[in-house]
Structures are given as structure tokens and as C-alpha cells.
Give the backbone structure.
Amino acid sequence: MNFIYTYVPKNDDKKLDSEFYLIDVILLLLSVVKLKQITTPEDKIIFYSTEEFLGYFKDINLFDEYTEVPNIENYLSNQAYEFCHKNSIYKIFVAAKQNVPFIMIDHDFIIYDKDFLDEIKTKDLVFSFKEFTKESAYMNTYLPTYDSVVKELGGDIEVLKNVNKEYSINMSIYGGKRLDIIKESYIKISDFYIKNVKFLNQLPLMTMFLEQFLFSGQLTKYDVEPYYCWEDLYTGKCHHYTGFRYELANRKKIAEELKTEAPLVYDFVIKNFGFYPSYMSKIMF
């Protein structure tokens, strides 16, 4: 199985060695370190990013392959960067280019348990969990965005016809053996984005809408039962940090875990990204 990480820094005024990216880099590398402990020699871990960002990591040989993300910068050029979670939009195009089954893992998602990993490798489709649109956390996200898109573009477009307004799917981890479903879905979604890029780039929640909501709608066309990892988040088999990674206690926990599990990787982070002593002192023991 191919395991894919896609991480693309925003094109803003923050340098790659700034504190803005430090905790993400630490968490990304911790996720890979833990994954390497439980994969087999047949598995492959691939890192997709920009040429510049990949250059930071090649010397540590932590990934099996380093691959540049598809060049879609021209589609993002008219979009205010704060509207774009770049990892999400690039994940769509990366997934559409895969030719063998894979599992995409976000940099803030860690798998700890080998039995759990071996199990999800056998599944047709694997996702993190369902996000129900009527829950308070999502009421102002998917459906208002969907309504705006339908109002502007009409509802007869193929990728809009099969949406399930009850839920979306969290994609902090996704993939599985059914490459055909994933690839076909994201080819259609990426084509839809390119065709309507001028309008879609105006939507603050555009990437969530494309990556998660429209994809979940595509599943209604297939007779397949997805496997959701949500229950295992509470058993210690895996952990999704999301925005909690920025909390001080979690920053310390993540940094200390990397230092314990992979001292050389930790030293690499300090050497290449630890240029802010006052910030480092806040998260290191």
C-alpha cells in the first residue's frame, strides 16, 4: 500500500523556517516516524509538496519518495490565501493522479497500532468520520456553501446531483483498495473546480466543500461500505490533533514524543526550523 502525505505551505509572508510552521513540521515528522514503525517493506511512504519544501526533508531519508505536487498555482492566483487550506486543494489533484491503491494521511493524523493499520489496508474505502450537517459545528459550512454554488452555477452539474445533505466525510485519512472510486471522483471534482475556478475561489469554505462534501456525494453511486476510523480515535489506535495541535500542552506533548521516538529527526527539526528560541522554549521541555 502507498501511504501519501501532502503538505503545501501557504503562499504568504511567513517564511518556511518560522514558528508558524514549526508545530506542523514536528507533527508531520512524528506521524511518519510512527507509521514507519508499523508498515511492511512492501509499503511505500510518499511525500507530496513544493520543490522548495521537499528540499528541507530529503537529507533525512524519512520518506520513500519525494514528489512535487501538481502545478495548480495558476488556479489559486486569484484567491486570497486565507480562503485556501492548501493541503486540501492539493490533495484533490494528488489523489486524481494516483495509479495504485493508496491511503492519504494528513500531517496531524497519527497511527499508533499495527493491527489497526493492517486492518485498514484491507478495506475498500477508509475515512476518518462522518460530519453531520445538522450538528452545530457544521451547520454554517457545507449546506450554505452548497446553496451558494447551486444558486450561481445551477444544480444540474453532475458532481452536484448526488450530494447527500445529511452528512459530509472528514478526510484527515482516506483511501483504500477501491482506487477506481477515489480517482474517478476526484478527477470529476478537480475538473469542476477548474471550470468554475473564478467563482469557487470566492468561497471561504471552498476546499472543504470540494474535498469532503462533493466527494461524499459521489459515494451514493457505488455499492460499497466505507470503514470509518472515528471509534479508534478513542482507543489509542490513532489520533487526529486538528486545531488542538496549537494548544501549549499538545505542542509540548508532540515535541517530546518526537524527541523520544526519533532523536535524530528531532535534531533535524531544531537545526532547520528552530530559529526562534523564545518560541521553542514554550513547547520544549
Remarks:
- The first strand starts at residue 2 and ends at 6.
- The chain is about 45% helix and 15% strand.
